[in-house]
Amino acid sequence: MKHNVSVIGLDIAKNIFYAVGADAHGHEVLKRKLTRNQVLAFFANLPAAKVGIEACASAHYWARQINALGHEVKLIAGQHVSRRVVGNKNDYRDAKVICELRSQPQTLYVPINTEAQQDVQMLHRVRQRLVENRTALLLQIRGLLGEYGISFPQGPTALRTGLIAVLGGEHAGLSARALEIFCHLQVQLTVLDEQVDEYDERIRRLAREDRQAAQLMDVPGIGPLSATALIASLGHAHHFPAGRNFAANLGLTPHEHSSGGNNGCSGSPNEVIVTCAPCLSTGPAVLCVAPRTNPTGCCNGRSNSRTQRASMWPPVPWPTNWRASLGPFSPTIALIRRSGILSM
């Protein structure tokens, strides 16, 4: 019976997998519960078929492995699968919905990442965790200092300068034990700074060596972080029919909710690519800040300061006019969406 299988939906997990297969007429002809060690052997004994997998943890690995066995594997976004499940959720019903979606021509798929793409994604995720840990440590230092009546202006620079002054003995009211703890926190902060700088340098080196990243950095508002994140998360853009589809895939377009002939659009949807969206929002924000200090919209030379990092991009005169007419954040949002379209 399994030789009649033309479409298979595979629900993956850590140890227990579930496969549901259908023939060319859509009739269910296969239902099999598998352990992790049985998956590849099971597909190796099947004739070539269309296979659907929900795009979740380890999905890209299994897609590459099953593709190597001669099958045609496609990844389906998780939100499409969960909305189609009827009744209580279980492994069989998930696999059945995946099988149904895989057999429908209008289904939109998630591109399969290569191992090289996953390497770069891991680089970004580890850096993101280090940045979050550093931010949490700065907030803890600020809170602990506040308990002793010591307060500094907003921003990490003012806090770092103030912490050095505290350790230098400018606040004599602190006990020796408190100074010892703050000194230890300062050491932790220095270590995190060094680790973040190390990953930043790795990303910059990767961007210099990659031809596609160099082309992406010609787009206003896109730097090494954004370029490498886009390549790692989305790969080539051949599966997007237009730039607007690419921006929508990033989660930069409004979420439509229309009913009864009334068209309604709200803010950007929740399905945003975590690695790309923050990067694409930072560059345009800097680009829109630059005209405040430089009328030409660009600076000469490169610097680490927030307003001078737009020097790598050509002047953008219209954000100033938009800010005056539509509000302070309108040019930033427009540039974010424009970056998603131009990066095609």
Q: Can you describe what's shown?
A:
The chain has 344 residues and is α/β, with parallel strands linked by helices. It folds into 3 domains: 2-110, Nucleotidyltransferase, domain 5 (2-Layer Sandwich); 129-209; 216-342, no CATH class. It has 13 helices and 8 strands. Strands 3-2-1-4-5-6 form a 6-stranded mixed β-sheet. Strands 7-8 form a two-stranded antiparallel ribbon. Helix 5 packs antiparallel against helix 7 (176-209) and helix 6 (156-167) crosses helix 7.
Can you give keywords for this protein?
344 residues, alpha/beta, Nucleotidyltransferase, domain 5, 3 domains, 6-stranded mixed beta sheet, two-stranded antiparallel sheet, 52% helix, elongated, disordered C terminus
Brief write-up:
52% of the residues lie in helices and 11% in strands. It is an alpha/beta fold and 344 residues long.
SSE blueprint and pairings:
Elements: E1 7-11, E2 16-22, E3 28-35, H1 39-44, E4 50-55, H2 59-67, E5 72-77, H3 78-84, H4 91-103, E6 109-110, H5 115-146, H6 156-167, H7 176-209, H8 211-216, H9 224-234, H10 243-250, E7 255-256, E8 265-266, H11 276-293, H12 318-326, H13 330-342
Parallel strand pairs: 1-4, 4-5
Antiparallel strand pairs: 1-2, 2-3, 5-6, 7-8
